[in-house]
């Protein structure tokens, strides 16, 4: 589904990524782990076209997407959710998702018809909000939501284009214990149910072991190890990299 | 329903005004309408995208000079120059926007200011074509548009069209896309919106509207002057929008009326208008950060 080969990226001489390769099989949940500053978010930014890599290739579903602008990558079937939950705070929850649906369909050039009159997009947005368990909050102002709900809005927007694959950067960051447990269950049920391919980063080891089919360990911009969660758990180098921090 | 009642009353008052006001006051009212259109145009970009343009004088003046030159050199009737003025202003905005909307906030402001001053400098010095600092004077908009009442109604119609235009865009997906880009550009890209095209389109439409205001100014003054393109003209739109309330649909228009009427009143009595204006703005920023529209209770973007 996604293939990253030999990607390198430096910032002012500092190598944030050096020769990173990664394969995410269709339908699998793939975790990208590593200590702070390992380069996880940088790799995500390369994949989604926010950073142009100094070297290497990114291929999504057989299509080379290296260096394509983010808006294009997204329309090719990659849903994106960020490390810090993000939404359009001047709008209601429903408006956020309706806009995301219309944007994915290339219907946001319209300057005449009211957004509130797009019944089909509103129905699609309501369905997405139902998936993430926010149907009741549809009319709430986004600015008033707690962080956990904001993350759900973010994921609903990431799903608006009905992507084949989803990128989640630290979906549990900032959540309380109870919220974390709920989010893990939610990701499991919803995304497995949809048959989506998932690439995610997470510091919560327990969640990684529970969700992931494969794990790639990144350390100082390089792939340290890759394998099943069980194999990774027993890998001495990985243990050392984390404890050595 | 209640809001609609007030709106109808306001409309009736605006329609009756030319028959109630003495000549000089009507002239001032026309000036207020022209500034209202100009400030509404400026504020469209400011409110929806968060980008503060300090270069809208270029589009106001661009529209004005297009009208003045077509009348003077090609003998076009006044009204026919309107589409040309709007188109010229739009093209100018497209060109300036192409280089400016990519940059963020303060650079955008400085860049639009620099481009507009460049346009001003060209018009100011190009005596053979634009008349340089003498401007283009002695224009005759014809018997009809030379009449203050007719000009008032023309300005009222264009202002109403401009306001409707901005209102529709605000509620349409295009307006939401602009505010999404303003709220969170990274998230906007991640739902598939490329900011550049949207920002450039918004800036161009705003420039086109400003050009229509410039077109009106020519009939009001029967002339076009380089002052129309000077940075102080851009500042008038900014002040009017902030005075009235940039977040309200009617805010810039309200600010324009206060700015022009208060200016005319103070100037007829003292020579301290800039001082008074400074104090008014200071009081506003301190006590009414939402602008005068904030008095009416919050964010009236109806
Ligand atoms: N735009 C940038 N400019 C300069 N340096 C950057 C930039 N983005 C990332 N870096 C650097 O690259 C390194 C990797 O950062 P990155 O954000 O990818 O780490 P991460 O693995 O996501 O960490 P965390 O777990 O804390 O989110 C860090 O040292 C960071 O300072
Ligand atoms: Mg990170």
UniProtKB/TrEMBL annotation, chain A:
Domain ABC transporter: 2-245
Gene3D superfamilies: P-loop containing nucleotide triphosphate hydrolases
Domain of life: Bacteria
Cellular component, GO, one term: plasma membrane
Alphabetically ordered keywords of this record: ATP-binding, Nucleotide-binding, Transport
Family annotation (SMART domains): AAA
InterPro entries assigned to the protein according to its UniProt record, in alphabetical order: AAA+_ATPase, ABC_AA/LPS_Transport, ABC_transporter-like_ATP-bd, BCA_ABC_TP_C, P-loop_NTPase
SUPFAM superfamilies assigned to the protein according to its UniProt record, in alphabetical order: P-loop containing nucleoside triphosphate hydrolases (SSF52540)
GO biological process: D-alanine transmembrane transport; L-alanine transport; L-isoleucine import across plasma membrane; L-valine import across plasma membrane
GO molecular function, one term: ATP binding
PANTHER family in UniProt: AMINO ACID ABC TRANSPORTER ATP-BINDING PROTEIN (PTHR45772:SF7), CONSERVED COMPONENT OF ABC TRANSPORTER FOR NATURAL AMINO ACIDS-RELATED (PTHR45772)
Protein name: ABC transporter ATP-binding protein
């Amino acid at each position: 589904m996604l293939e990253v080969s030999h990607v390198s990226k430096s910032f002012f001489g500092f190598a944030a990524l050096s020769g990173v390769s990664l394969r995410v099989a269709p339908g699998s949940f793939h975790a990208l782990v590593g200590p702070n500053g390992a380069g996880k978010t940088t790799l995500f930014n390369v994949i989604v076209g926010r950073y142009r890599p100094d070297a290497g290739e990114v291929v999504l579903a057989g299509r080379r997407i290296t260096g394509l602008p983010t808006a294009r990558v997204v329309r090719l079937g990659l849903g994106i959710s960020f490390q810090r939950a993000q939404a359009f705070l001047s709008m209601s929850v429903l408006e956020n998702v309706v806009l995301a649906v219309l944007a994915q369909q290339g219907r946001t050039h319209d300057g005449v018809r009211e957004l509130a009159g797009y019944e089909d997009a509103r129905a699609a947005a309501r369905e997405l909000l139902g998936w993430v368990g926010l149907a009741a909050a549809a009319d709430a102002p986004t600015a008033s939501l707690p962080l956990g709900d904001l993350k759900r809005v973010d994921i609903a927007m990431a799903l608006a284009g009905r992507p084949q694959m989803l990128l989640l950067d630290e979906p549990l960051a900032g959540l309380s214990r109870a919220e974390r447990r709920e989010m893990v269950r939610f990701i499991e049920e919803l995304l497995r149910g949809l048959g989506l391919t998932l690439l995610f980063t997470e510091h919560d080891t327990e969640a990684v072991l529970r969700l992931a089919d494969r794990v790639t360990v990144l350390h100082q911009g390089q792939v340290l190890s890759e394998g099943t969660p069980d194999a990774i758990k027993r890998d001495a180098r990985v243990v050392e990299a984390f404890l050595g921090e | 329903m209640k809001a609609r009642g007030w709106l109808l009353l306001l409309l009736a008052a605006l329609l009756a005004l030319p028959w109630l006001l003495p000549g000089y006051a009507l002239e001032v009212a026309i000036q207020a309408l022209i500034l209202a259109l100009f400030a509404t145009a400026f504020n469209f970009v400011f409110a929806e995208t968060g980008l503060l343009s300090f270069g809208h004088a270029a589009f106001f003046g661009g529209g004005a000079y297009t009208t003045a030159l077509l009348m003077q050199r090609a003998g076009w009737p006044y009204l026919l120059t309107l589409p040309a003025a709007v188109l010229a202003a739009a093209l100018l905005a497209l060109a300036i926007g192409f280089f400016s909307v990519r940059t963020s906030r303060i650079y955008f402001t400085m860049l639009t200011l620099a481009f507009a001053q460049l346009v001003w400098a060209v018009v100011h010095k190009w005596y053979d074509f634009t008349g340089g600092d003498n401007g283009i004077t002695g224009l005759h908009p014809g018997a009809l548009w030379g009449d203050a009442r007719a000009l008032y109604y023309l300005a009222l119609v264009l202002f109403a069209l401009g306001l409707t235009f901005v209102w529709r865009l605000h509620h349409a997906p295009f307006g939401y896309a602009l505010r999404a880009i303003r709220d969170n550009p990274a998230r906007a890209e991640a739902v598939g919106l490329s900011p550049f095209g949207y920002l450039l389109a918004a800036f161009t439409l705003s420039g086109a509207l400003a050009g229509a205001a410039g077109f009106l100014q020519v009939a009001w003054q029967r002339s076009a002057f380089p002052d129309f393109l000077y940075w102080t003209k851009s500042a008038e739109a900014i002040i009017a929008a902030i005075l009235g309330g940039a977040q309200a649909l009617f805010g810039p228009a309200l600010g324009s009326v206060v700015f022009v009427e208060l200016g005319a009143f103070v100037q007829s009595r003292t020579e301290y208008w800039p001082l008074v204006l400074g104090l008014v703005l200071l009081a506003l920023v301190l006590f009414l950060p939402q602008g005068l529209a904030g008095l009416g209770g919050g964010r009236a973007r109806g």
